[in-house]
Amino acid sequence: MKIYSVLLVLIFTSLSFCLSGCFKWSARAESKLPKETALHKTYNYGGKVIIVGAGASGLAAAKVLEQNNIEYIILEATNRYGGRLKKDTSLADFPIDVGAEWLHSAPITLNKMKGKLGDEIDEELIPYHLDNTASWDGEEYTEDPHWQNNFMYKFLPESKFKKTTWYDFVDENIAKTVKHKIQFSSPVSAIDYSGNNIILTTKNGNRFEADRVLVTVSIGVLKSNRITFKPEMNEERKQIMNSIIFHPGFKVAMKFSEKFYPDAINCKVENGEKGFYDIAFKKDAQTNVLGFLCTGNETQKYYDLNSEQEIISSLLQELDQMFNGKATASYSGEYILENWGQHQFTMGTWTQAFQQKNSELKILNQPLDKKVYFAGEINDTYQQMGVPGAVLSGYHSIDKLLTDK
Ligand SMILES: Cc1cc2nc3c(=O)[nH]c(=O)nc-3n(C[C@H](O)[C@H](O)[C@H](O)COP(=O)(O)OP(=O)(O)OC[C@H]3O[C@@H](n4cnc5c(N)ncnc54)[C@H](O)[C@@H]3O)c2cc1C
Question: In this structure, what DSSP letter does residue 55 have?
Answer without folding.
Answer: B
